[in-house]
Design goal:
- The structure holds two protein chains of two kinds.
- By secondary structure, chain A is α+β, with helices and mostly antiparallel strands.
- A seven-stranded mixed sheet of chain A has the order 1-15-17-16-12-11-2. A six-stranded antiparallel sheet of chain A has the order 7-8-9-10-13-14, with no helix packed on it. In chain A, strands 30, 31, 32, 33 and 34 form a five-stranded antiparallel sheet that branches.
- In chain A, a hairpin with a 2-residue loop joins strand 23 and strand 24.
- Chain B has two domains: 2-64, no CATH class; 68-171, Beta Barrel (OB fold (Dihydrolipoamide Acetyltransferase, E2P)), CATH 2.40.50.1020.
- Helices cover 25% and strands 36% of the residues of chain B.
- Classes of the chains: A alpha+beta, B alpha+beta.
- Chains A and B meet through helix 2 of A and helix 2 and strand 11 of B.
């Protein structure tokens, strides 16, 4: 019932026009019929009266075309005008039923390229594909981190161990997980929700002994009850985790699993189907629940898992598609973009030099409905999405598509309908897209930034002058008060650049914060923006660097934390304090620093321990510390 | 006016030759079978070879039954066949007969004309107009239960709501 009402609400104008047109048609039809009858009787009567000159009725028939055709034409023209490019969504999705269908898909796809000279990047070897899958790092949501906390506890991981610290007893920690030496598992992030800690880990492979080892990639999520500090559930998910995020008390994850066609003759082929396992209960994805996107290289199982944090239940769906698909997780669901070939029809029968009719990209949307994650729609585009040219942020779903006509911006509705398609001149490459309020900032590789107004769904326009000079690469902090911080590393300097927004133009202070004794190459290996903490309440920036003290012939490295305060008037940071963390809690690889403010305490956290002191800037060096053991 | 009584297989062919349309109310019976005559009607018995001649005769019957109306012209009073008149209309309290391109005065009341021409091809369409059915070119229904008659001379005459039903009945024969 709600769906019917929703349908009427969403299509009010179209339905209204159709109803009015039908009513108008009925009225005009009735009038026409009356007219026809009257004139027919008139001719008959005149015939009886032997007035043969009047026995013609062509005028009536001619009028009938206009009378009936015109009202029917109105809704037809209206619908054509509104739905500018009618598309068929589900024709691009195919479902397989059994293993044989999957193999046929694979054969049908690759047989087209037997005689082809087309440089098809999809023709790569499975080993390359596997290596690509495992060298890419998992994209984590900001909520999933090495240090997480709730009102009572905070948890810290160094990748091997997870330590739990009670806020009331800062001098005591408990090792919740200790992975044994030689374990092929590493913790990649933590998430805390109410009284439950989620520990996310992956198995790793240091030495490739056999390709098949890669097929055993899996991800674990272990849940710990913080009150009893005990393990409650262990979830295991197949594949190499590519993205994970938390929305509305749900984990959304995507994993890649190259399909092991080289094992097709063995029974191991079926052992590497996508699956999840809750404690000891394993659920394997069956072939008849997999979908295939038309024209994609059927080389990879891309599985979307959804873990409900309240019910601790899992839903998953698998799509057979290219191994290099791009994924975006959002509150609306999961977006998948990749390449789809439209093949020449003759390529089904003969080997062709170039079997490809059109090389295009598609967007697939998966939504969460009734506790399940499922395919919603797939839309083929008439070109290729520019690298980094797809953004999903709140109500904005927008992509830049390139074809022979140039680059166009496509904005989509929630239903993946096109709100508008607007040609965009002088935009060939995109490094980053950033949305702030209703302005989309597109940074090009030429270091120019184009600004677009996205305030109205049906319009898209460049601002004049249409560009600002810079766009931050690594955004540290972005709040509603129009302060945006960004970090960049160049030579031996780490720049923190504050950005402010004046009208719609983003301006920045060219502001270099910390000079270190390291060169850029070394800085980049251990430093990333997650280690710089800006506390909004205090307006303080905690900035750690590795500092070396000469002790005899050797140098002792330790973590030095600079504390800056943001001055609204000068729009600059001023240094307030520095603190040398004890050498025992310093760890360079991986270099992890986080900062938690709890009541009156500032707590500096590294994987090896914590340092805590009073919030007053004067008390910073009067600290105590705890070493995890 | 006419009723054709011939064997079924010959009916279409003979009717075509006679250019006749049957009506429910008829005064003349046309037949090739002398046993088919009706005693209370005027009967014409003919063979198919005589059909051309009978056709001319029927034209004469129709014309012969015509009524002449006296009209006032600049040359004096003149009798005109009623079939030449498109319609009668009251203008400035005088009855005018409208022909193809002429409008002439008639020294009769409209109700007298209606009575005279009642069984002919004239039909009252409003308080002010009496229309020749043969001179109606097209009937155009309006939305308010009225009809607009487009006459062969290009004039438009409205069928009043009050006369709408009678007009329909007349057309129903």
């Amino acid at each position: 019932m709600v769906q019917i009402l929703e349908f009427f609400y969403n299509n009010f104008i179209i339905i209204g026009v159709i109803v009015v047109s039908v009513v108008a048609t009925v009225i005009l039809m009735r009038t026409f019929y009356k007219e026809f009858r009257f004139n027919r009787k008139l001719r008959f009567k005149q015939g009886v009266l032997r007035n043969f000159n009047s026995l013609k009725n062509t005028r009536v028939l001619l009028k009938s075309f206009y009378k009936i055709g015109l009202p029917l034409l109105i809704p037809f023209v209206f619908i054509l005008a509104v739905v500018r490019s009618p598309i068929i969504y589900d024709d691009h999705i195919h479902y397989i039923e059994e293993k044989r269908d999957l193999l046929e898909l694979h054969d049908a796809y690759h047989s087209k390229f037997y005689s082809s000279t087309t440089q098809d990047v999809d023709q790569i070897q499975i080993k390359t594909m596997l290596e690509e899958s495992y060298t890419q790092s998992t994209k984590l949501d900001d909520n999933i981190d090495f240090v997480v906390h709730n009102d009572q506890y905070f948890a810290v991981t160094d990748g091997e161990n997870v330590h739990l610290v009670d806020q009331d007893r800062l001098n005591v920690s408990k090792k919740l997980i200790g992975l044994s030496e030689g374990s092929n598992e590493s913790v990649i992030g933590l998430y805390i929700n109410d009284e439950i800690l989620y520990v996310i880990s992956q198995n790793t492979f240091n030495h490739v002994k056999h390709d098949a080892d890669f097929f055993k990639a899996k991800t674990f999520i272990r849940t710990y009850d913080l009150e009893s500090q005990s393990l409650t559930n262990t979830f295991e998910f197949s594949g190499s985790l590519t993205h994970i995020a938390v929305f509305d008390d749900r984990f959304l994850m995507t994993s890649d699993q190259p399909i092991p066609y080289n094992l097709v003759e063995t029974e191991r082929f079926e052992q590497y189907l996508p699956y999840y396992q809750k404690n000891n209960q394993k659920t394997i994805q069956s072939y008849d629940e997999m979908q295939y996107i038309e024209g994609a290289n059927p080389s990879n199982y891309l599985t979307i898992f959804m873990l409900d944090l309240n019910r601790h239940s899992v839903s998953f769906t698998t799509t057979i598609t290219n191994h290099d698909s791009r994924v975006q997780l959002s509150e609306e669901g999961v977006f998948l973009t990749s390449k789809s070939y439209l093949f020449k029809s003759a390529s089904d029968y003969v080997e062709m030099n170039n079997p490809v009719e059109q090389d295009r990209d598609f967007i697939s949307k998966f939504i969460i409905k009734n506790g399940d994650v499922s395919h919603f729609r797939t839309r083929m585009l008439d070109g290729k999405i520019l690298d980094n040219g797809f953004i999903v942020d709140g109500n904005l779903t927008l992509t830049f598509v390139e074809n022979e006509d140039g680059v166009s911006a496509y904005r989509f509705s929630q239903q993946l309908d096109i709100f508008h398609r607007t040609p965009v001149s002088h935009l060939d490459t995109i490094d980053t897209l950033h949305l702030h309020r209703h302005v989309l900032y597109a940074k090009t590789s030429a270091d120019h930034v184009r600004l677009f107004d996205v305030s109205r769904p049906t319009e898209f326009s460049s601002f004049s002058p249409g560009y600002t000079t810079v766009l931050p690469n690594n955004i540290l902090f972005n709040n509603a008060r129009d302060l945006l911080l960004s970090m960049n590393i160049s030579e031996d300097k780490i720049h923190i650049t504050p950005f402010s927004f004046e009208n719609h133009v983003m301006r920045h202070n060219d502001y270099s914060l910390v000079r270190t004794s390291y060169r850029q190459s070394m800085l980049s290996t251990y430093y990333n923006e997650h280690n710089v903490v800006f506390n909004e309440d205090q307006q303080r920036l905690y900035f750690p660097v590795i500092n070396g003290d000469q002790v005899g012939d050797s140098i002792d490295f330790k973590t030095k934390v600079f504390t800056y305060e943001w001055d609204e008037d000068s729009q600059q940071f001023t240094i307030e304090q520095t603190i040398d963390l004890p050498i025992d809690i310093h760890q360079a690889f991986p270099f992890i620093y986080r900062n938690i403010i709890l009541d009156d305490y500032v707590i500096h956290v590294t994987p090896l321990g914590i340092v805590y002191h009073n919030l007053d800037i004067e008390d910073y060096n009067d600290y105590r510390y705890l070493i995890f053991s | 006016m006419f009723k054709l009584k011939v064997p079924k297989e010959d009916r279409a062919r003979i009717r075509n030759k006679l250019k006749i349309i049957d009506s429910k109310k008829y005064e003349y019976v046309l037949t090739t079978d002398k046993d088919a005559i009706e005693s209370d009607k005027i009967n014409i018995v003919f063979t198919e070879e005589q059909a051309e001649k009978v056709n001319l005769m029927l034209n004469s019957i129709v014309k012969g039954e015509d009524v002449f109306i006296s009209i006032e012209t600049e040359y004096g009073t003149k009798n005109v066949e009623s079939r030449r008149i498109h319609y009668f209309v009251i203008e400035n309290e005088e009855v005018m007969a409208v022909m193809m391109k002429q409008k002439v005065l008639v020294k009769m009341k409209l109700y007298e004309l209606e009575a005279t021409l009642k069984n002919k091809y004239f039909i009252r369409v409003s308080k002010y107009a009496l229309v020749n059915i043969n001179k109606i070119d097209y009937i155009k229904p309006a939305f308010n239960s009225k009809l607009l008659l487009l006459m062969k001379n290009g004039d438009k005459v409205e069928v009043n709501r009050r006369y709408y039903k009678a007009f329909k009945q007349t057309l129903n024969l």
